[in-house]
Amino acid sequence: MATSQDTRAAVRAHYEPVIGLEVHVHLLTASKIFCSCSTRFGDPPNANVCPVCLGLPGALPVLNQQAVQFATLAAMALNCRINERSIFARKNYFYPDLPKGYQVSQYDKPLAEFGWIEVPATGGGAKKIGITRVHLEEDAGKSLHEGFPDSYDHTYLDLNRCGVPLIEIVSEPDLRSPEEAYEYLTRLKEIILYTGVSDCNMEEGSLRCDANISVRPAGQREFGTKTEIKNVNSFRFIRQALEYEIERHITVIESGGRIVQETRLFNSNEGKTYGMRSKEEAHDYRYFPEPDLLPLVVDAAWQRQIRALLPELPAARRARMMREYSLTEDDVYTLTRTQGMADQFEEAARAAKNPKRVANLVIGDLLGRLKAQGLEIEQSPISMKGVAMSADLVESGAISGKILKDLYDKAFERKEDFPAIYEKEKPRQITDTAAIEKMIDEVIAANPKQVEQYRAGKTTMKGFFVGQVMKASKGQANPALVNELLDKKLS
Amino acid sequence: MDISTLTIASARAAILERRTSAVALAESFYQKIEAADKQIGAFLTLTRERALAKAAQIDAIADKGDPLPPLAGVPIAIKDVMVMRGVRSTAGSKILSNFVAPYDCTAVARLEAAGAVVLGKTNCDEFAMGSSNENSGYYPVHNPRDLSRVPGGSSGGSAAAVAAGMSVAALGSDTGGSIRQPASFCGVVGLMPTYGRVSRYGLIAFASSLDHIGPLTKTVNDAAILLKHIAGRDPLDSTSAEVPVPDYEREIEKPVRGLRLGVPREYFGEGLDPEVRAAVEAAIQKMAQIGCEVVPISLPHTRYAVPTYYVIATAEASSNLARFDGVRYGYRSPQAGTLSEMYRRSRDQGFGAEAKRRIMLGTYVLSAGYYDAYYLKAQRVRALLTRDFEAAFQRVDAIVTPTSPTPAFKLGEKCDDPLAMYLADIYTVTADLAGVPGVSVPCGESKEGLPIGLQILGRHFDEGTVIRLAHVYERARSG
C-alpha cells in the first residue's frame, strides 16, 4: 500500500510540528536543597528525612549554597543570563508525596534566562534552540503503589527524594521535529554531564523530560493547540511519543476535530499516548513568593567564581579538536560521542609522538573496521592506548603501515588489544648476516657523500646509517648485528 | 512566698538566694494551675515531667554551688504554636490533636538552655487566628480579670496564665496583634520584636512574613530579660537577621529625656472607646512630663492596613495550612474511601470555622485572575505602610497609640461577626505589616476595672528604645 504511505507523507508535509521541552535534572549535591539530609539514591525508604524535608509544622528551609553554584554553572553552560536576584516561589498543590502541600520552586524571577544551545539541523549545519529559563527547585517524594502485601488498597510513601535539588530547563518552542527534540536532549545532557553537576541518570530519575507539542499548517504563524506529554523515561521514547502525538494531532485536525489542551501519558509498551482525566490536571498552582526564604542573590563576584569553574564544553571541544587534529566534523562527533571516549582519545593523542597520526589511525584504520563489524567505539578491541602505541611504532619506523594494518586485522579477529597482539606478532628480527650485509651495501652505495664524511672522521654519522638500514629492513634487522657489520663495512 | 506576684527578676533572686528550690517553685505553680485554670482555661498541655526534671537539674547545680544559668528555675509557659520535642503541639487545632513534635522550637530551646522551666503549653486561637481565643479548637480562655470576658487573642492563654499568676512569664506569637492585644486585655506586658529579631524555627506558621515570637510578662524589665535570651540570628531560619543583640536589661535603664514621641492622628479616630482614649492620652501626658517631646504625626495609609493584612495573612495561611492533609501526621478522617475524600473530610473535620474561612479567603486571593487585584495590590499597600513608618521615624523616635480600640469584650459578643472581630486588630496589624517592633504596656483601667494597654512602636531593630520608654512609663505610673 505504497499509495497510502505516500498520501500520509503528503498530508504530514502540510503541517509543521512545534515542540518545546521541559527537562528536570537532579543536582549532585551531597545534601538536600533546604536541609542537611543525604541525597543518596537507593537507601531504604524514609531513611534520609528530617523535620524540614518532611514538612513538619514549624520547620523552615535553609538554602544549600552548593545547589545554587551547580545550578548557576549549568545555566552558564547553557549560555543563559544569570539573574543577580531571583525569587523562590511556592507552587501549591495537594499530593501525598508533597509533604508541605507546596513545592518550593521559582516562578516569575528565575535564576537564569535567555540561554541557547546548538543542535545539528535536519538539513545540515547547526540550529540554535532557545532556552527560556533555568530555575532551581526541590523534588517531591515518591508514592509506592506496588510491592506491598496490601498494595491493592494502600499506597506507601518514600520521602527520601523530597528536597533533592533540581534544575528545570525550559526550552523555547523552537524544535520542529522529533529528531530535533532528540538531538536537543542529547546535546543538553552532554553539556550537563560536562559541567559535572548531574549524572543525568534517567533510570534513577535524575533526568526527566516533559514535552509540549502542537502542529500548525505549514506557513502559519500562530501555534496550534498543544498537548503535554509526561512520564517518558528515555530520549528514544520521547522521539516515539512525539511522532505518535504529531500523527494524532494531524489525524484529528484533518478529520475536522479539535485538539484538546491536556496532559497525556506515554505508554512505552504500546507506543501510544493517553489523555489524563482532565480533573486530575485542573491545576491552579497559586504561585506566590516564598516568605520563608530571602531573595536568592548571585552577585557579580560569585558569578565570576562560578564561571571560572566552567570546563571546556562539547561544542568548543569539537571545534578545537577539528583544528588540532585536522579532523572533519563527522569524525570529531564520532570521537566525542561520550566524554569518556573523547578524554581517552585526547589523552592517547597527547601521549603519542604525533597526535595527528593517532587521529588518522582512529579515523582511517579503526572506525572502518568497527563499522564493518557493526561495533560501537566503546566495544572496540583496540583501546585508545593501543592506537597511541601503534602510532608511535609507525612514527619511529619500527613497523610499516602495512604491518600495522595486519596487526589491526589480527586484533579484531582475536578480540585482543593492540599491545598484546604486537607482543605476540611483532616482526621477527633479521639475524641473517648476508641479508643485512646486502642492505648495508645498498645504503653505502646510495649515500656516497655521507660515507665520505664518516670516513673523514665525522663518526656521529653512524646513527644515520643505522637508521637507514633499519628502515630498509622495516625495523626487523637485529640492531646489534647492524652496528657490528656497519663498523666492518665503513672502516 | 506569694508566687502570683513573682517576676523573672524576683523568681531568679529567690532561687539564687536559695529561698526556694526550682522544684518547689515549679510544684507551687502546678498547684496554682490546678486550682485556677479550670475557670480560666489557659493551658492545653502541662509538661510536668519535663519541667520537674529541668528544675531538679537546676537544684543540683545550686546544691553543688556551681554558677546558675541566667533564668535558673524561672517558670514559663509556651503558646501551643511553638513545638517542643516529645510534647504534644496542637496550635490550638483539633487537626493536630495527636501531633507530638520530634524537635524543639529555637526560642523555647534558648530559654531552656538559659535555665527556664517550661510549665506547659498555652491555649490559643486555632493556628493563632483570632482576637478573642474563642477560636481555640479545645476550649475558650477566660480573662482572669473578668471571667465573662475574653482574654484577647490569639495568645490569650499565655496572657491569661501570666495575669492569673499561673506562670511568671510566657512566650506568645504575634501576626496581627496576637501578643499585644491579649496583653492589653489581661493587663500584662506584651512585646512583639522586629521581624527577623527572633527565630521562627519551630513556630507553627500562620503567616510566615508576619509571624513573630515574643514575651508576655508582668513587667517591662521581664520582657527585656526574655527578649535578650530568645533574640539573635538562628542558622535554621533564613529570615532571622544578622543584627547584634543589645543587652536589653541595660537598654531600659538609659534616659528617655528628649526622645520624640509621635502620636498618629489615625489611631485616635472613630471607633476608639472613650475610656481607652482618656487612658492613653493621660499616658502620653505622663510621658511628656517625664521629658519626652510629643509630636503629632500622620500614618496616612493606616486605613488600608486591616484589609491588606487579611489578604496577605490569609494568602500565606492557605499555603502554610496545606500540609495538614491527614497523610503523614495529625488528624485523619476515618470516613474516607478515596484520597480526595481523605483530604476533604480530614480537613473539614480537623479545622475550625475561622481557619477554614481564612484558607478559603487566602486561596481566593492567590487564584489565577485574582492574584494581581488582591495579593499583588496588598503587597504594594504593605510597602506604602512600611514607608509611612519610615517617614515617621525620620521625625520621631517612637510612636504611641492605643493597643486596642476597646477593653476586653464579652465572650460570644463578636463571634458571629468576623468583620467586627477583625477590627479588634486595627491598631496592631500595621506594625506586623511593617515589621517594626511594638510593646503593649498597661496604662490604666476602665470603670469596670478592665485593663487598658498603651502601645509603643519603634524603628526596625530598635526594641531598646521601645522597652526603655515602656519601662520608664511603667515606673512613673506605679510610682
How would you characterize the overall build of this protein?
The complex is a heterodimer of chains A (491) and B (479). With 491 residues, chain A is α+β, with helices and mostly antiparallel strands. Chain A folds into three domains: 11-305, no CATH class; 314-425, no CATH class; 433-490, Arc Repressor Mutant, subunit A, CATH 1.10.10.410. Chain A has helices at residues 2-13, 65-77, 178-195, 235-254, 300-307, 314-325, 329-335, 339-351, 355-373, 384-395, 401-414, 418-425, 433-446, 448-455, 462-472, 479-490; strands at residues 15-26, 81-82, 85-86, 88-92, 102-106, 112-120, 126-138, 142-144, 156-158, 165-171, 207-217, 227-232, 263-267, 272-275, 288-289, 296-297. Chain B has a domain at 3-251: Amidase signature (AS) enzymes. In chain B, helix 10 (305-320) packs across helix 12 (353-366) and helix 10 crosses helix 13. The interface between A and B is large, with 28 and 44 residues.
Task: Please give the domain count of chain A.
Answer: 3
Based on Cα principal axes, name the global outline of chain A: elongated
Please give the largest β-sheet of chain B.
11 strands, mixed
List how many beta strands of chain A DSSP finds. 16
What strand line-up does the widest sheet of chain B have? Answer: 1-3-2-4-6-5-10-11-9-7-8
What is the count of DSSP helices of chain A, taking H or I runs of 4+ residues?
16
Order of secondary-structure elements of chain B: HHEHEHEHEHEEHHEHEHHHHEHHEEH
Low-pLDDT sequence parts of chain B: none
CATH class category label of the domain at 3-251 in chain B: Alpha Beta
**Helix proportion of chain B:** 40-55%
Most extensive contact: A-B, 28 and 44 residues
Can you give the mean pLDDT of chain A?
91
Structural class by sheet pairing and helices of chain B: alpha/beta
The count of strands of chain B amounts to 11
CATH topology of the domain at 3-251 in chain B: Amidase signature (AS) enzymes
Question: Structural class of the secondary structure composition of chain A?
Answer: alpha+beta
- Percentage beta strand of chain B: 5-15%
Number of helices of chain B: 16
Please report the distance between the alpha carbons of the first and last residues of chain A. 87 Å
Strand percentage of chain A: 15-25%
